[in-house]
Design a protein that fits this description.
Layout: E1 5-9, H1 17-24, E2 30-36, E3 41-46, H2 49-59, E4 63-64, E5 67-68, E6 70-73
Antiparallel strand pairs: 1-3, 1-6, 2-3, 4-5
């Protein structure tokens, strides 16, 4: 793994940032947690690549709050074209 930021998918909508932080800090220091509300996924940033890999290896495919989590290395955000909506 090259990065220390993880994508965490298939979360129950009731899971909070605090709950996810508690779960991941078992595998190392958590730098930040950001759940995207109403989408069922979020991101967890660990302090090192080794901690992120350990968390991914242990938690991917595990059951949490009745859902099977999908954990992968987060990809960089896609660039969006500037200018927004164009009228013709």
């Amino acid at each position: 793994m090259e990065g220390n930021k993880l994508y965490v998918g298939n979360l129950s909508y009731s899971v909070t940032n605090e709950q996810l932080e508690e779960l991941f800090k078992t595998y190392g220091d958590v730098v930040s947690v950001n759940i995207i509300q109403g989408k069922g996924f979020g991101f967890v940033e660990m302090s090192s690549n080794e901690d992120a890999k350990k968390a991914k290896d242990e938690l991917n495919g595990s059951d949490y709050e009745g859902r099977v989590m999908k954990i992968d290395e987060a990809r960089p955000p896609r660039s969006r074209p500037e200018g927004g909506y164009k009228r013709f």
